[in-house]
Amino acid sequence: MIRAVLTGTGSALPARRVSNAELAERVDTSDEWIVERTGIRFRHIAGEGETTATLARDAAAAALISAGLAPGDIDLLVLATATPDNTFPATATKVQAMLAIDDCVAFDVAAVCSGFLYAVQVADSMIRAGAHRRALVIGAETFSRILDWEDRTTCVLFGDGAGAIVLEARDSVADVNDPGARGVLATRLHADGRHNGLLFVDGGPSTTGTVGKLRMKGREVFRHAVVNLAAVMEEALHAAGLPTDAVDWVVPHQANARILDATARKLSLPSEKVVVTVDQHANTSAASVPLALDQAMRDGRIQPGHIVVLEAMGGGFTWGAAVIRV
Fold first, then answer.
1. DSSP sequence for 25-65
2. Over the stretch 66-103, which tens digit does the pLDDT of each residue have?
3. What is the residue range of the signal peptide feature (predicted)?
4. What is the C-alpha to C-alpha distance for residues 294 and 287, in angstroms, rounded to an integer?
5. Angle between helices 218-240 and 257-266 (to 10 degrees)
6. Of 20, 228, 256, 283, which is the active-site residue?
7. 177 catalytic, yes or no?
8. Quick one: CATH architecture of 183-325?
9. What pTM did the predictor assign?
10. Of 44, 104, 113, 155, catalytic
11. Quick one: pLDDT band at residue 196, thresholds 50, 70, 90?
12. 104 is catalytic
């Protein structure tokens, strides 16, 4: 059977790395306060000339090298972002031009922190339908440009960055328990717009005519995140026909170390199986899952044949999970 197989990963971070101590020089906070509540120690902040598109381009270029492909081999480019370079055109088309891909389907997906999971399901569906053979799936953000730097409860949580993967149509064994069953085995997505007011940006083209700033009710978001993420991971594993103990690694959305710990406990997963980068990157929204995945692939923790669960939840609320054998 044909599945979308992961053949390459890549990531990119802005040059400027900001510690909690440096942040405390301009915000009423401290390293101790941030680490205790979030686990975050550093974040990268985009500088002049660094945009969502340039970060996405660099991550995509690294993923292509990892997959052993040229830009012209790609016929589908899906970019997840909540911080596009422009209202339009889609940032994906800017990345397409930067990579010198003459022609491919290119568009953005907007589902905030869950955007990368949404993009994975879109690309997986298009590949399995036979419409495309090779896809670049990217999550890229410059959240620093929509933060209220006077609000210490939110501005300390986020950073900028990009991550990308290559998915290719490949023959794969049907039996998910067979090591030859590589690729995306199952995905599950959800949304509940009744909770818009808990995590949102207070601006937009058709409302205020401005970009706006991020607003969040952290306690309520935390409560929903733990319940929803544990449930959707179980749902995706059930759809794939796999038990929880078959999971080699969980690569979660890097929002808050306490959410990661609570979700792992709810699923009875050992913390050693959870990839954690929130301490180094903070919350990079749609970029956080592919960033963490690329790091775990490059340092050798995730090996060919491993069962990996990706999961994320973001504003909307939107949330989702994907089960992949790499």
1. TTSS--HHHHHHHH---EEEE--TT--HHHHHHHHHHHHHH
2. 999 999 999 999 999 999 999 999 999 999 999 999 99
3. none
4. 11
5. 40
6. 283
7. no
8. 3-Layer(aba) Sandwich (3.40)
9. 0.98
10. 113
11. very high
12. no
